[in-house]
Specification:
By secondary structure, the chain is of the alpha+beta class. It has two helices and five strands; from the N terminus they run H-H-E-E-E-E-E. It has a five-stranded mixed beta barrel. Strand 2 and strand 3 form a beta hairpin.
Length: about 130
């Protein structure tokens, strides 16, 4: 749907038009000076120009969703993890089922881990020091 800049400026246009209409009505029926109408619209445009770099970064980055968002995430083991079984790992506010990656040594509860792979709903982790 066009470049990020085009989408941003087209999204700002209705606000500029609405501000110009409201200020125009105030000029026509309430005696607001003409320079105040122009200054109000100009300030709105200047504000949008100043905020464009921040907004552009937000519009550029795709949302991080799905299993790809978990790769590389850091967490803490809730249970001890050994090569023979599954345990639980807290990533942010969520608790996930987890297994150790191949070749990773056992971990005690409270160990810091990093997600190396996601298979279904099970995270494959290794100690953060080894990552």
């Amino acid at each position: 749907m066009g470049s990020i800049a085009t989408r941003y400026w087209l999204a700002q246009l209705p606000g500029w038009i609405l501000a110009a209409l409201v200020l125009g009505v105030a000029w026509r029926f309430m005696g607001l000076p003409g320079w105040a109408v122009l200054a109000g619209v100009a300030l709105l445009v200047v504000k949008d120009v100043a905020l464009y770099p921040l907004s552009r970064r937000a519009l550029e980055s795709p949302p991080h969703t799905g299993s790809g968002a978990l790769l590389g995430a850091r967490g803490v083991t809730q249970d001890g993890l050994s090569g023979s079984g599954e345990g639980r790992v807290r990533i942010g506010a969520e608790i996930w089922r987890a297994e150790l990656c191949d070749g990773a040594g056992p971990l005690a509860a409270g160990s810091r881990v990093r997600v190396e792979a996601v298979r279904g709903l099970v995270l494959h982790v290794r100690a953060e020091d080894d990552a």
